[in-house]
Amino acid sequence: MAARLGSVADLIWGTASQDAEIVRRWLQGMSSAAAGRFGFEFHDAEPSALVQHAGGPCGVIAPVQAFLLKHLIYPEGKATVPGGWRTPKDQYGALVSALTTMLLQAAMAPSSPAKDAPVVWPAAGVTVVTAPLDAGDQTLDDFHQHAQIAVLHDQDMIEPHLLSLQASLQHPFAVVALVYSLVLTRGTERLAEDMGVEQDSLISAPFGHCNQALLNLALTGTAVPNVWDGDNDMGGLALRGLPRRSTIGYLTLLESLRYCTCGSYFKNPEFPIWVLGSETHFTLLFSLDSRLVVQDSPRQHASTVFDRHDANANGFLMPEQLPALLDELQLLMEDNEARTRLVSALDRDGLGIVLKPQFLAHFYKAEGENGTPEQFVVYHYNGIAQPGSVVRFVRGQAKAESPTDVGATDVMRILWSKWTKLQVQWDQSPRVT
């Protein structure tokens, strides 16, 4: 057992495994062992909210919280909202359902973005790593030595097996055990295929944060290192993005800083639940209004694809970039002469560039915000409470109105990456750090 866990330790930790402080921060509840509060812990004041004790594992805890809420608010995938989602009778059962979903995704998610990629139950099955029951274990070597591994070849056995592990899921190493379970279930060969050329450790030094590949593995079952739709060719290198629409979404502050752009697979997930990424932390936004997750219209899809080709976010492309854009959008031109005429039509001012508004207007009709309701309620979750406060779902009343930069907060800058017209009146100020 120790050898198998140790074989993936470098992939997971890299040099971070040598930093005792980083490992300590990933031990959920070790500092509060005397109180008997460990692992995946629910807050007394918000019974369906998980608690994070220290910085580091938020990139795993936030996805678990997202899938937990998905099972509470949208049971069996139905867009219905049962009462009592904030006071569940069976917190542990909802947690187990969330973990089961995440492991099944890792087992079955395709690496290829091909639309016809089959969903196949792998012969290797699902690997569940169980944290040791001895709460005195405080090092990775302890964990590798004493953790148990179960390989399940029947999908129907995963949830019953996890239900039998309540004590282990309340162990300080429970979050770490989930990371190992996801990695071993995905398998090193498929992880290498997911990550492509960008194969860094999943937990990075010097701060012990999850990298994008680990967050994506937890959210989608694939450890691709980027946030766009599909693969991007960069000088002959295939930079891997999401192969399909995600169940849970992701929005990031880095988009407002123009470091990246999330694709429609993350911005329009199957359920109105999004992990929010700041520069140092992951939190959560969710809603009970399923109208917030509609598929992109052709114009919105074209806008996303245009932005991907516009790597420097200039708002325009050079004429020589147009053929690749047209091919990806399946806007076929008869020949090079037809493309030359198109460039002339789009560049009436003779600037030698193709502006995004002119391109979209030429091929697509103008449209609104694609069905976004005028008003809706959202909730924000942060697993780390401020000193003297508790973990709470913060309610916000959202309106589709033009925003103002005056007093803009990081959480609003993140939300504007999806809803360009949005203002939110919060019951109290949410934090994304």
UniProtKB/TrEMBL annotation:
Q: Which InterPro entries has this protein been placed in?
A: EF-hand-dom_pair, MINDY-3/4_CD, MINY3/4
Keywords assigned by UniProt, alphabetized: Hydrolase, Protease, Thiol protease, Ubl conjugation pathway
Q: What is its EC number?
A: 3.4.19.12
Query: Which GO molecular function terms does the record list?
Result: cysteine-type deubiquitinase activity; K48-linked deubiquitinase activity
Catalysed conversion reaction: Thiol-dependent hydrolysis of ester, thioester, amide, peptide and isopeptide bonds formed by the C-terminal Gly of ubiquitin (a 76-residue protein attached to proteins as an intracellular targeting signal)
Question: What does it do?
Answer: Hydrolase that can remove 'Lys-48'-linked conjugated ubiquitin from proteins.
Family statement: Belongs to the MINDY deubiquitinase family. FAM188 subfamily.
The identity of this protein, by name, is: ubiquitinyl hydrolase 1
Organism in which the protein naturally occurs: Monosiga brevicollis (Choanoflagellate)
